[in-house]
Specification:
By secondary structure, the protein is α/β, with parallel strands linked by helices. It has two domains: 12-233, TIM Barrel (Alpha-Beta Barrel); 243-518, UDP-N-acetylmuramoyl-L-alanine:D-glutamate ligase (3-Layer(aba) Sandwich). The chain is built from 20 helices and 17 strands. The strands form two sheets. Strands 10-9-11-12-13-14-15-16-17 form a nine-stranded mixed sheet, sandwiched between helices. Strand 5 (109-114), helix 5 and strand 6 form a beta-alpha-beta unit. The protein is elongated and about 90 Å long. The two termini are 39 Å apart. The relative contact order is 0.09. The structure holds ligand 3NM and magnesium ion (MG). Residues 15, 44, 113, 134-135, 139, 141-142, 177-180, 204-207 line the site of ligand 3NM. Ligand 3NM binds at residues 15, 44, 113, 134-135, 139, 141-142, 177-180, 204-207.
């Protein structure tokens, strides 16, 4: 059932203060701000008697409804309930969010002011829909307790960085307040942002209420915030409705519904057991046969084949080529994990042979491995404008695209940001995935395990869903890792939690936590 909870847009959030305008002009000022494009309203009255407050709330609500903008009431849950406002905004000394949520129900908005990451976590756990920081700058509008120090740009930046790392807060909308105006909000948006998270907007009182033309003042703020959201280095896209993320979630739903693809692995001794367990936990059925004599039968039963060139030896190569050929003949997707591809001539030559004789659906490697493949003599890889040894995002994007173009495979280039390039008609497309955790680097074989997950998803994917299968595999690993981090004491308990989360991960977790953005080239 569709929720009738109002849409929350924090871009330009007007907090009222009736002391800033003559009594008779209050509603006209609010209406001018609504006409100027305010996206959210909060009625904040610290000295009105309750009856007058409620009357004003009713009148303001009627205006807010006229412009389709939600109205929240500061502090006074009773007034919010009495007039049927859209929710409340609560400070740390007001009623707690948990109680407010219980009294308001799920379809109202609850916002909470937070001073630090601990309060942000608590607010999220208590059901807050968005957060407001305490004051970023000094302001004459609100009297703060003695000793209060505004957060400053640095304080807000730290809070956003901490939120980006926290599974419950990475997607929590957040706004800042205090001394903000048309002169400083552009810088505030840009300078507090990190690649994963930026402010969703700004809350202001005097920058609208105390201006001679509230409508014009608001329109100016709206323009600046819009532009700030598009600032290239401040861009983050939490693509809950991105088609690839939806398709990835759909593939996980297939695994969860009991389709159990048999995924045949020819993988290295180091990761064999972990890969088998990961396949089992995400919903696949692993088999690790590697005798040449079995390839024909085993690959014939399989829904996907994973070839991993770690711990190579001669009979493995023969088995890989045979399994790859069988898979190709039967339309079974083949995943290549070119572990250490550039490290030895033997691995390079093996990869060259594999690429020559087997058509891969997905190739997954780090920048070094993908570069080693791209430099193989047999491949006609065109690398325009990229120097070898350049490890910038731009170079990594170009590399993944070039290999995707040359092989026709979906290419997953892993790193702090993963880039996935794939052909779509005549076009090469690339998406960037920002999920994951540095903890993955403290466990051996997590890269190989990602290839296993991709194999499981490819095993239930249609031919035209192979990019989605790659996205699903990488997202599952990254998101399971993010969920595992708060439960871990060290690498060993992280591993346990990671595998538990691979087992419990649901399609909606992918949609909720995915940080996937389309790379414009
Ligand atoms: N709350 P102006 S500062 C309403 O620190 C409010 O939580 C604050 O007014 C907090 O935009 C503030 O005029 C007033 O500076 C912001
Ligand atoms: Mg308060």
């Amino acid at each position: 059932t569709p929720s009738n909870k109002p849409q929350l847009d924090l871009s330009v959030y007007l907090v009222t203060d009736s002391r800033m305008v003559p009594e008779a002009e209050f509603l006209a000022t609010v209406e001018a701000a609504l006409q100027g494009g305010v996206t959210l309203l909060q009625l904040r009255e610290k000295s009105l008697d309750t009856a007058i407050f409620a009357d004003r709330a009713r009148a303001t609500l009627a205006l807010a409804r006229k412009y389709g903008v939600p109205l929240l009431i500061n502090d006074r849950l009773d007034v919010a309930l009495a007039v049927g406002a859209d929710g409340v905004h609560l400070g740390q000394d007001d009623l707690d969010a948990h109680t407010a949520r219980a009294l308001l129900g799920p379809n109202k908005i609850v916002g909470v002011t937070v001073h630090n990451i601990a309060q942000a976590v608590a607010a999220a756990e208590n059901g807050a829909d968005y957060l407001g920081t305490c004051a970023i700058f000094d302001t004459a509008t609100k009297v703060h307790p003695d000793g209060f120090v505004p957060l400053g740009i640095e304080g807000v930046r730290t809070l956003l960085a901490d939120m980006a790392e926290h599974p419950r807060l990475a997607k929590m909308p957040i706004v800042t307040i205090g001394g903000l105006n048309a002169e400083n909000i552009g810088a505030v948006m840009a300078e507090t942002a990190n690649p994963r998270k930026q402010l969703d907007g700004v809350a202001v009182v005097s920058a609208i209420m105390a201006q001679p033309d509230a409508r014009e003042a608001t329109a100016e703020l709206v323009d600046i915030v819009k532009a700030g959201k598009l600032a290239p280095n401040a861009q983050y896209v939490a693509n809950a409705d991105d088609a690839l993320v939806q398709a990835a979630a759909h593939l996980l739903a297939k695994l969860r519904s009991g389709q159990t693809p048999l995924v045949h692995h020819l993988t290295n001794f180091v990761v064999m057991n972990d890969n088998a367990n990961a396949a089992l936990h995400i919903g696949g059925s692993p088999v690790m046969a590697h005798a040449v004599q079995e390839m024909n039968d085993m690959t014939g039963f399989a829904s996907a084949l994973v070839i991993n060139v770690g711990t190579l030896s001669e009979h493995w190569i023969e088995a890989m080529l045979l399994a790859g050929k069988v898979a190709n003949e039967r339309g079974i997707p083949v995943i290549l994990d070119p572990v250490g591809a550039g490290a030895t001539a033997y691995r390079r030559e093996t990869c060259e042979r594999l690429l020559r004789e087997v058509q891969f659906a997905v190739i997954k490697g780090n920048a070094g491995e993908i570069a080693a493949l791209a430099n193989l003599p047999g491949l006609d890889v065109e690398m325009r404008g990229v120097d070898s040894g350049d490890s910038s995002p731009k170079a990594r994007i170009a590399l993944s695209r070039a290999l995707a173009q040359a092989t026709g495979a979906v290419v997953v280039l892993t790193g702090a940001t993963d880039f996935i390039s794939y052909t779509d008609g005549d076009e090469i497309k690339t998406v960037a995935l920002e999920n994951g955790s540095a903890w993955l680097g403290k466990l051996t074989g997590t890269g190989c395990t990602t290839a296993t997950l991709v194999g499981c998803f490819a095993g239930v994917a249609e031919l035209d869903q192979r990019a989605a299968a790659a996205v699903a595999g990488v997202l599952s690993m990254g998101i399971a890792a993010e969920l595992a981090v708060p439960e871990a004491k060290g690498p060993a308990s992280f591993k346990v939690a990671l595998f538990d989360h691979l087992y419990t991960l649901q399609p909606e977790d992918l949609v909720k936590h995915a940080r996937v953005r389309v790379v414009e080239v």
